[in-house]
Write a structure and sequence with these properties.
The protein is α/β, with parallel strands linked by helices. The chain is 43% helix and 14% strand. It has one domain (3-337): 3-Layer(aba) Sandwich (Rossmann fold).
Amino acid sequence: MTDETTKREGPASRDRRNVLRTASTLVAGATLAQALGGAANAQQAAGAAAAPAGTAPLIPGFTPTDIHTSGGVTIHAVKGGSGPPLLLLHGAPLTHYTWRDVAPRLAEDFTVVAADLRGYGDSSQPQGLPDHSNYSKRTMAQDQVDVMSHFGFAKFAVVGQDRGGRVAHRMALDHPDAVTKAVFIDIVPTYYLYTHVTIDFVQSYFHWFNYLRPTPGPENELLAQQRNAPSGPQPSPAQLEYRRRNGTSEGVHAMCEDYRAGASVDLQHDAADLAKKIRCPLNVLWADGGAMDKIYDVLAIWRERARNVVGKGMPGGHNMQEGAPNEVLAELQRFLRA
């Protein structure tokens, strides 16, 4: 940022920039147990540092496939069902397995593809580039468009939760002719978050700042905290799946790069596209009583970014596809069938 730009900024802009610069210091105590917990609290359930051996547990009725994409990575996905195509994208630090209670029932009406994002699960986990562009949401969205193309789908609906929702947002902007409908779960636009920084945001989403520090600082801290995490009950298959690859040094680095891209190259892409609106019908779901619900008017924010938006608060928490799968299934069926 140039001196001239700084002169043109108002006090509010300078304050936001200062928060961004110092927030990681305030939240340096973030733990991998919190980062990799999600709905399952995976790392709190087991403190071993090494990831378990094996492969992802199967979702009944789904066949796994590894797809080589135009971006030079391999994306792991599972496919099942028949009918109109539907892509499901998970959040951090989960995998496609988070849809295990929803995907089989959606597959009664749709051809469902549930994929691991670049950097997560059994998809490639490349070393981040200096500008973090290989973890930009533009790049990650192209991965998933390539996945659907591999299966013969030029047009499809997409449901994305958490980080998957951010990939789906970029996909709807970059590939408007491909995305027929979209559902974003428990997010508001990344650009809005980083241009409206408040103490409530920092306190609720501390990892959004902690992971931005240069590698390998956050990665080493998170892995050390994972090794020192207290033991707990026997982990469930879902908990083991989330830590199997996401809890490795490569997986932790990939997750941090996902967030670093969000605060750098993604912001550049988003700023350039502020005049664009999502063309397809959009349904935004947020956790009733959760952080997004408490801090933001989620529906009003998305109405500034899309032409045709509906939305509602849902039970089940941030990972509602696990916390309230029946309710999430019913809402997805209602919207996607219409």
